[in-house]
Write a structure and sequence with these properties.
The chain is α+β, with helices and mostly antiparallel strands and about 950 residues long. It contains 25 helices and 21 strands. The strands form four sheets. Strands 1, 4, 5, 6, 7, 8, 9, 10, 11 and 12 form a ten-stranded mixed sheet that branches. It has a six-stranded mixed sheet with strand order 15-18-19-17-20-16.
């Protein structure tokens, strides 16, 4: 065999310098890897549209809700430009009378009806001018007179009644009023017997265009409907031309709105210096130029636009918990998606990709979906708010003067939503990146071992959360009240941060809770035992589900505590005019009579009582109450400070009870009440200065006291009245069996703290007293016997007729009673206010909130249960393969939902109630925090049971046969 020559090549062991290994990072390598992650994430989103749409909706909805709520809240505030448009139209200014007792009263530049003064003295030389006489030359003048007309309603004598209706005498369709008045239907009024009405008047009186309306000033044909930009379309208003209802007609007398305003049409603006001069004459002016460019800060442009502290704090807490909830829900969805991606991500890692690149694929999906969600949410929220404002304005409501989008809350909501979505993707991304490449290639379901760190971090966060909550509570509860009020933003931030950290800590500790709670399950039925073992074995599936339910229950329970506390605050601060379903009608003075009649005719209480019984079948009893009267008091008589002289048995003295030393309501130097629950700060005639139709000092006996209390008086009170003593309505006015009765002159006012007005006492008289407080704070000091009142020189007479009704009257009954009383009082408008009591719909509203909260929590439980069942699909297929009956698989689905919802709601209620109670106490947003135990119990029981039942119903009984997955 031929031998081939073998030549051994010669190798050099020296590598050339130009072939050296370069281990430096590739320029822009991070950016290229991030672009790769973005591209893979985009492709994964397009392949799994259902899961991606779910995540987008979870982030979109709260962002849209917060954006829309912020926009609607701002849209409720009227801007100066809108006020000018709706009040002035295209005119330059409006002149009207200003209530003032001297020349030192100053109006607000924008809201001209708001006035302030530092001098409360009645100046006898101050003579307010008629606005008509102060109009400068060079303007065309348009007038608008506000009147009250009576409209005859009913088709028969039995059901007919005279109803007082607001009317305006104005040339409404003058081009100068464009923007203020708008013709909706019909045509302008041409003849003297034609009028325009608001749409609410057509509905109120059941008429159509072309029908005739009978009023006290004649019968008019309704030829069109008109919109007044300052009133809702639902308000019944009649629009007449100037002269159709003369000011000396019956419509002008007794009208609470009887005022004529003057609008200036011209090219010259009315400036602030002119307005200040007019203020000194008792004239208020709304000027286009001044309102659009106020020379001084205006309460109309600054104060109302500032959100109250209570609403701000509660809104921040609810928004933070809402975003945390949706972030955890999105995290559960991302966790399921990451498990489905594990094989392709492992292949990416096997090809040389680093762990940050693998993590970036999942987090990039969070950025993609979060960006889409927050942009769409902001657009949807702003668009929805704009649509609500537009539709509301189109329907004639004045609730929203215009659409105002506040950029700062919108950007904040978008940033918070994007952050929530990004953080929701970070945790499953880290879990996937930690999986071993070989294990991931062998099986797409290789579990990631979490180790002890989640429990350790969760314990640390729980300690930090407790520290935040303790610090916030300490800062909010200790120290001077005025200083505590200044710390409210910091306190709210600490408590809100503590609440969020507590939820995060419980989420991290959920795996430990699941392990501990499922350790002893041998005694449970088979479905619960299997669910417990599956939860402990697949904690990567269980923890996100429990965490999402936990966050939803936290949000729900915090909202329930805040709502219950707010409702209790509304009930506590309700201003009672009398006992529930009582009406008080004045008897002391007759109204201003028509021209040519005798003034000051007495009101017959028997006639008033008979009219009430005739028109209302619910009158239970009536009682005449007597008290000190000032019907003939001349308010200008004692401007020099001298004591008033009695005339005709009536003078200007009024009476009140003094608070004994040591029983004053504790308050700070700035007037903040230290404890709203303190007995010295509550009860009848508190807060100080409260008043109503009832006489503040009632002169009478046991019958009068019984009517005011709404029950039988105590034996001690009866004995005190019989012996000439006084019965006091509030224990704050009594000390050692004695009360001090003070008299004061209503013409001698002094400036008090803030904008309050106080009076200098003229006399102090000690009287033996007994306390018999009403069940609700009815505004009266007490009852004094007639003999004692006469001995003290108190001039008293009939003051009020108090009537007790068995039920709150319907609108038609109130119309009939008002019409009957108007005939007795000889006026066109007669107020008829029946005390409705505190908010009687509070409990129903609370249960509505409970239902909404339960629905939110249930939706979270349903979403997470569905995701968990999707992730456990292979396990259920295995069960079906080994012969498990369909009812067992359905029972297992129900048991898994029951365990997830039970654990999540239990932890969530604790995490929501505690911060909410601390927040209310530390920020003093309400006087007392109320924990609605029964609704919370319903939440704890109803949500898990309902979720379990729904999971059992919707779990598929039959599963499709699938082939064996590669690598398993």
């Amino acid at each position: 065999m031929r031998q081939w020559p073998c030549t051994i090549p010669q190798f050099s062991w020296h590598r050339p310098a130009e072939m050296a290994l370069d281990v430096a990072p590739v320029p822009h390598g991070r950016w290229h890897s991030f672009r790769l992650a973005l591209r893979m994430a985009r492709r994964d989103i397009s392949r799994h549209r259902g899961r991606s749409l779910l995540i987008i909706l979870l982030i979109l909805l709260p962002v849209a809700g917060m954006t829309g709520a912020a926009a609607l809240a701002q849209s409720m505030q009227e801007t100066p430009a809108e006020r000018v448009q709706y009040q002035l139209g295209s005119t330059q200014a409006r002149f009207r009378s200003m209530p003032a007792s001297n020349a030192e009263t100053v109006q607000d530049p924008v809201l001209e009806t708001a006035t302030m003064t530092r001098n409360f003295t009645n100046d006898p030389d101050f003579k307010p001018r008629n606005p008509r006489d102060a109009i400068p030359a060079g303007y065309e003048v348009l007038t608008e007179s506000q009147l009250t007309l009576t409209v005859r309603t009913g088709v028969s004598d039995v059901g007919a009644s005279d109803v007082p209706v607001m009317a305006k005498a104005v040339d409404a369709l003058n081009p100068a009023f464009t923007g203020k008045y708008t013709l909706l239907e019909g045509r302008p009024a041409a003849a003297r017997d034609e009028i325009l009405v608001s749409p609410g008047a057509l509905e109120r009186f059941g008429i159509r265009l072309g029908d005739r309306l009978t009023t006290a000033d004649g019968t008019f044909a309704v030829v069109g409907t008109l919109r007044d930009a300052t009133y809702s379309d639902g308000s019944p208003i009649l629009f007449l031309k100037p002269g159709q209802a003369p000011m000396d007609s019956p419509a002008a007398h007794g009208s609470p709105l009887g005022e004529t305003m003057y609008y200036l049409v011209g090219s010259e603006p009315v400036l602030w210096d002119q307005i200040r001069d007019l203020n000194r004459s008792g004239i208020a002016v709304l000027s286009r130029a001044v309102a659009l460019d106020p020379p001084v800060p205006s309460g109309a442009t600054e104060g109302p636009r500032t959100m109250p502290a209570a609403g701000y704090v509660a809104g921040v807490l609810i928004a933070a918990l809402a975003l945390l909830e949706v972030g955890l829900l999105a995290g559960a969805a991302f966790a399921v998606g990451a498990k489905r991606q594990v094989r392709e991500l492992a292949l990416l890692a096997a090809s040389g990709a680093e762990a940050p690149t693998v993590r970036a694929v999942v987090t990039a999906a969070g950025l993609w979906l979060g960006t889409i969600a927050v942009v769409a949410g902001a657009v949807l929220g702003a668009g929805g708010a704009a649509a609500v404002v537009g539709v509301t304005r189109h329907l004639g409501s004045v609730r929203f003067p215009g659409f105002h989008l506040d950029i700062l809350p919108t950007v904040a909501a978008m940033a918070m939503g994007l952050l929530a979505c990004f953080l929701a993707a970070v945790v499953p991304a880290r879990q996937v990146a930690r999986q071993a490449v070989l294990g991931a290639l062998k099986s797409g379901r290789a579990p990631a071992v979490s180790g002890p760190w989640p429990a350790r971090v969760g314990g640390g966060l729980l300690v930090l959360a407790i520290m935040f909550l303790a610090a916030g509570h300490t800062l909010g509860m200790n120290g001077d009240l005025d200083a505590r009020a200044a710390r409210i933003p910091l306190v709210a931030a600490l408590l809100t941060g503590g609440a969020v950290l507590a939820v995060a800590a419980l989420v991290l500790l959920t795996g430990t809770f699941v392990k501990v709670l499922t350790a002893r399950t041998a005694w449970m039925p088979l479905p619960l035992r299997m669910a417990a073992r599956d939860s402990a074995r697949n904690r990567s599936r269980t923890v996100p589900a429990v965490a999402a339910v936990l966050a939803a229950a936290t949000l729900a329970s915090a909202a329930m505590v805040l709502s219950a506390s707010q409702m209790e605050e509304a009930r506590r601060t309700h201003m009672w005019a009398a006992q529930e379903n009582q009406v008080s009608l004045p008897l002391e003075t007759a109204p201003v009579p028509a021209t040519g009649t005798s003034p000051d005719q007495a009101i017959d209480p028997a006639a008033v009582a008979a009219a009430l019984r005739r028109e209302l079948s619910t009158v239970q009893w009536t009682q005449v109450l007597q008290g000190p009267v000032t019907s003939k008091c001349d308010m200008r008589a004692s401007a020099d400070g001298s004591l008033p002289a009695s005339g005709g048995g009536v003078d200007c003295r009024q009476y009140k009870l003094a608070v004994p030393p040591g029983q004053e309501c504790p308050a700070t130097p700035q007037g903040r009440v230290l404890d709203g629950q303190d007995w010295r700060c509550n009860g009848s005639m508190f807060p100080a200065g409260v008043s109503g139709q009832l006489p503040q000092l009632v002169v009478g006996g046991v019958g009068e006291l019984r009517s005011l209390l709404g029950r039988e008086p105590s034996p001690a009170a009866v004995a005190a009245l019989n012996s000439g003593g006084m019965v006091v309505s509030n224990p704050v006015f009594e000390k050692d069996g004695v009360t001090t009765l003070q008299s004061y002159d209503v013409r001698q006012s002094l400036p008090g703290p803030g904008s309050a007005v106080v009076y200098k006492p003229l006399s102090n008289t000690g009287l033996p007293a007994v306390v018999d407080a009403p069940d609700v704070p009815v505004p009266f000091y007490g009852v004094i016997p007639p003999g004692t009142a006469s001995r003290l020189g108190i001039h008293f007479d009939n003051s009020v007729l108090l009537a007790q009704l068995t039920a709150y009257p319907e609108a038609a009954e109130q119309d009939r009673a008002s019409a009957a009383l108007a005939q007795i009082y000889r006026i066109q408008a007669m107020g008829f206010y029946v005390e409705p009591g505190a908010d009687r719909t509070g409990s129903e509203l609370l249960w509505l909130i409970v239902g909404i909260s339960a629905l939110i929590t249930l939706s979270a439980a349903g979403i997470t249960t569905g995701l968990a069942l999707a992730d456990a699909r292979a396990d259920h297929i295995t069960l079906a393969g080994v012969g498990a009956p369909p009812r067992l698989r359905k029972a297992l689905a129900g048991a898994q939902s029951l365990m997830t919802a039970s654990l999540g709601t239990s932890l969530g209620v604790a995490a929501g109630v505690v911060p909410a109670v601390l927040l209310i106490g530390a920020t003093r947003m309400f006087a007392v925090s109320v924990v609605p135990w029964l609704p919370l119990l319903a939440l704890l029981v109803a949500v898990p049971l309902t979720g379990s039942a729904l999971a059992w119903v919707f779990a598929r009984a039959s599963l499709p046969v699938t082939r064996r997955s590669a690598g398993t």
